[in-house]
Write a structure and sequence with these properties.
Blueprint lengths: L1 H11 L4 H19 L10 E2 L10 E9 L3 E10 L4 E10 L3 H4 L2 H18 L6 E7 L3 E5 L2 E4 L16 H11 L5 E7 L1 H10 L5 E7 L3 E8 L15 E5 L12 H9 L7 H6 L1 H17 L20 H9 L6 H9 L7 H33 L7 E6 L1 H5 L3 H13 L6 E5 L3 H20 L1
Parallel strand pairs: 2-5, 5-8, 9-12, 12-13
Antiparallel strand pairs: 1-11, 2-3, 3-4, 6-7, 9-10, 10-11
Helix pairs in contact: 1-12, 2-12, 4-5, 6-15, 7-9, 9-10, 9-12, 10-12, 12-14
The structure holds beta-D-glucopyranose.
Beta-D-glucopyranose binds next to helix 6 and strand 10.
C-alpha cells in the first residue's frame, strides 16, 4: 500500500516524451501570443532594448546586480575579443526590511552599498554602470522600466508600476552620489546571454536556474509586434520571456497546495515547479502527506514537517548526492533539519522523491528551452550555446545531465548542436557589457 502510493507520486512527477512535446507546443503558442500587441499570454515576452554584443566592447564599467536576497557590486574591465575581468567585487545580503518592507528602503540600501564600495576602493571619478534588476520589468528604453510584479517572495510596497531606474537615481542623489550614471537596466538572464555571447557568437539564449528561473533569447525586431519604444540600431533585440510565469503545465495536488500557500497565488507557476526557492517546499508537502498516511517516519512521534520552507534546494542536492548504501549522509541532513531519527527505508523513499522533483524541473526546463531553439531555428541547422547560471543548475548533481538527456529525446542526433555553458557572474559581467554598448552608441551618435 505504502509503496504503491509512493510509486504513484513518482509517476505523477514524470514528464515523458509526449508530455515534453505538448509543453513545447503550448510554450511556442504562448511565445507568439506574447509578442503580439495586446496578445494574451502567460509569457510576458518583454522587450529589453538590448542587442547582442560584437565582442569588441571595451573599457571599465560597473555593475549593480540584484538577483534575489544577494546583492553584488562589481568593477569590470572589458578588454575586447570577448575578454572580461572582474577587478573588484563586494557582496551584500539584503536585510529583511529590503525584501518585504517599504520600497524606498531597498533603493537607499543599494545606494548605501555603492557608497561603501566607492569609498573602500577610493573611486571618485565618473562611474558608468549597468543595473541588473532580476524581476519582471516593462521596459520602454534601455534605461527605463516599470516593475510589473514581485517574484521570489519579495513584496516591497510602493514599487510596482514605478520606474526602478528613477527610484535608484533618487536614492543615489540622497546618498550624495552625483558621479554615478546609470546607463542600462537589465534582467539577469539578459546579462547572462550577453556575457556568454561576448565571446561566443553561437549564444542566443540565456537561462537562470537559481532561486528564481527565467530565460531570454534574441528575436527579430520584425517579429516583436508590440514594441513601443525607440530602437536605435540593429535588427534583433533580446526578449525577456519571464518563463517562470508559464502556466500551461499539469499540476499535482502538491503544486496546487504550494501555490495556494505562496505569496503570489496563481502566478509564477513554472517557477514554483522548477526553481530553487520552491523545490524543497514541494518535497516537504509530499513528505508531510506520507507521514500523515503513516507511510514514513513510523518511529517518530512527531516531525517538524509542518514548518514552511524547512527544506532548501541544497538539501535536495545533498540527498541526491548521497551514494552510500545506507544513506548515512542523508540521515545527517535530516537530523540537521530537526528530524531526529529515520530508517534506511525512509531515506531511500526520500531520495527517490527528491530525484522525481528535480527530474521534473529539469525536463520542464529542457522542453521550454527546446521550444525557444525551435522558434529561432526550426530545423536546428545552427549550433546553439545556451548560457546558464544559477545555483540549482550549478550545484545539483544531475540537473544539467537530465536536461541533456531530455534534449537527446527531443532532437535526436541533432542534440549535439545544443551546448549548455555555465556562465558564472554573467548577470554582472553582462551589465558591464550592456553599459559599454550604450556608451558606444552614444559616442557614435555625436
Ligand atoms: C524573475 C525573473 C528573473 C528570475 C531569475 C524570476 O523570479 O521574475 O525576472 O530573471 O527570477 O532570477
Amino acid at each position: 500500500m505504502a509503496l504503491e502510493s509512493i510509486n504513484h507520486i513518482i509517476r505523477e512527477f514524470e514528464i515523458d516524451k509526449p508530455e515534453m512535446r505538448r509543453i513545447m507546443r503550448a510554450f511556442s503558442l504562448e511565445m507568439k501570443a506574447g509578442l503580439e500587441k495586446g496578445g494574451k499570454s502567460s509569457l510576458k515576452m518583454l522587450p529589453t532594448y538590448v542587442r547582442k554584443p560584437t565582442g569588441e566592447e571595451s573599457g571599465i564599467f560597473f555593475a549593480l546586480d540584484l538577483g534575489g536576497t544577494n546583492f553584488r557590486i562589481l568593477e569590470i574591465e572589458l578588454k575586447e575579443k570577448g575578454r572580461a575581468k572582474i577587478l573588484k567585487a563586494m557582496n551584500f545580503k539584503l536585510p529583511n526590511r529590503c525584501i518585504t518592507g517599504d520600497g524606498r528602503e531597498l533603493f537607499l540600501y543599494i545606494a548605501g552599498c555603492l557608497k561603501k564600495f566607492l569609498y573602500r576602493y577610493e573611486i571618485s571619478n565618473e562611474v558608468c554602470l549597468g543595473f541588473t534588476f532580476s524581476f519582471p520589468i516593462d521596459q520602454t528604453a534601455i534605461d527605463e522600466g516599470r516593475l510589473l510584479n514581485w517574484t521570489k517572495g519579495f513584496g516591497l510596497k510602493g514599487v510596482i508600476g514605478k520606474d526602478v531606474v528613477q527610484l535608484l537615481k533618487e536614492a543615489l542623489a540622497k546618498r550624495g552620489l552625483g558621479n554615478v550614471e546609470i546607463l542600462a537596466l537589465l534582467n539577469d538572464t539578459v546579462g547572462t546571454l550577453v556575457a556568454r555571447s561576448y565571446k561566443d557568437p553561437d549564444c542566443r539564449i540565456g537561462i537562470i536556474l537559481g532561486t528564481g528561473t527565467n530565460a531570454c533569447y534574441s528575436e527579430k525586431l520584425l517579429n516583436i509586434k508590440k514594441l513601443k519604444g525607440r530602437v536605435s540600431k540593429g535588427e534583433d533585440m533580446i526578449i525577456n520571456i519571464e518563463w517562470g510565469n508559464f502556466n500551461k503545465l499539469a499540476l499535482t495536488r502538491y503544486d496546487r497546495k504550494l501555490d495556494k500557500l505562496s505569496a503570489n497565488p496563481g502566478e509564477q507557476i513554472l517557477e514554483k515547479m522548477v526553481s530553487g526557492k520552491y523545490l524543497g517546499e514541494v518535497l516537504r508537502l509530499i513528505l508531510n502527506g506520507l507521514v500523515q498516511k503513516k507511510f514514513l517516519f513510523l518511529n517518530l512521534g512527531s516531525t517538524n514537517l509542518d514548518v514552511p520552507d524547512l527544506f532548501k534546494a541544497e538539501h535536495i542536492s545533498d540527498i541526491e548526492n548521497d551514494v552510500s548504501r545506507d544513506l548515512e549522509k542523508t540521515k545527517g541532513t535530516l537530523k540537521s533539519l530537526g528530524i531526529r531519527s529515520s530508517t534506511e527505508r525512509d531515506r531511500h523513499i526520500i531520495k527517490r522523491i527528491c530525484a522525481a522533483i528535480s527530474r521534473r524541473a529539469s525536463r520542464v526546463s529542457a522542453s521550454c528551452t527546446a521550444s525557444i531553439i525551435k522558434e529561432m531555428d526550426p530545423n536546428l541547422s545552427k549550433a546553439h550555446t545556451i548560457a546558464v547560471d544559477g545555483t540549482l543548475y550549478e550545484k545539483h548533481p544531475r540537473f544539467s545531465k537530465n536536461m541533456e538527456t531530455a534534449f537527446r529525446e527531443i532532437f535526436g542526433k541533432k542534440a549535439s548542436r545544443v551546448k549548455m555553458a555555465l556562465t558564472k557572474d554573467g548577470s554582472g559581467i553582462g551589465a558591464a557589457i550592456v553599459a559599454a554598448i550604450v556608451e558606444r552608441d552614444k559616442i557614435e551618435k555625436v
